[in-house]
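Quick log. Single chain, no ligands specified.
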Amino acid sequence: MKIKENIHIIIIASVGFLVFYSLLAVRPLSQELQLTPQWTTSILHPVTSTVNKTETQIPFRLGQNMGYFTVNGEISLMESFPFQATISEAYRASYSQDASRIPVYEFGTASNAEYPDFFIEGTGFPFFSEDRVYLFNPGGYGLAQYTKEDGQIWQFEHTAPIVAFNSSPAGTAVGYADGTIYTFSSTGELVQTFEPGGSTYPIILGIALSSSGGQLACISGIDQQRFVLTQQRNGVNKVVFHTYLETNQREPVLVQFTKDENHVFYSAGNGLGIVNCFTFENKVIPVEGTILAIEECPTNNITCVLTRDKGRYNIYFIENRDVLMGHFGFKADAAFIDIQGGNLYVGRDTQISKINITRK
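-> predicted structure:
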């Protein structure tokens, strides 16, 4: 009798549920990430002499080999080096342990050419970031910046060794073993001296300077290790966010701002940390191993993260800088990733592959 008395209520509730379910059902399903292999090439193949020099040239370094390749999979330059080397979109150089007056070559100039494009007139270890040229002094206490046209444009030395370093169009950030950070403008003027503190053992293990120079982030200290974010406020750099990490990392780690400077990535010890630079929301996404590289794919709003865990490399795919969509791994002695447009380029030992990233 109770069922008959309440039948109209049951019917109304059932109809309401069906309408609600129908509204949910017509919402589009989230698109899945699809990785489509395009080509694989060997860096040991003969260099293609017909490559158009105006094409995009992507630098690579795998093991004791370095060079450039095109988006079509043509190896436009490949050289082996016996000790160490550095390469960027603009320059490359190989050097020995006691290198001095280091020859630098631009793309299009072979290393066996009679004359290099210019020399770094100094002793130490060079490093290239895009078109920016640096030389780290022997012993690791100082550095200098050079240009092709003017040679050395500035230098700086400290009493503690350099542990962390980052270069952006705005300038240079250097972190030292005594917990001190120095930032310099693009022409070498000292902009900021900063000691994050807050830990038992002060040391700067990772650092990043945003492209505009308005933000600085670092991993600081051991025993209560923490991530620190500073921003310029009325011409003064202030700490706007910090968080303590669950583990103590004891080697240099990666810190990197996104290209739009809205977020900053950092190695959290137990994963990849991501901080929103406006809301200061902090999230840690679990990834295995040491974080080696982070590449953004703006056409698909995907971030690719390369890690190394013993002899295995992993590539993780993160959506909206927030959600882990998946990953794959492979065994190799050396690897790299690069993104151009909607394509991921993966280097592994002596091979480079192109993978198209789409949503369907």
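The first strand starts at residue 33 and ends at 42.
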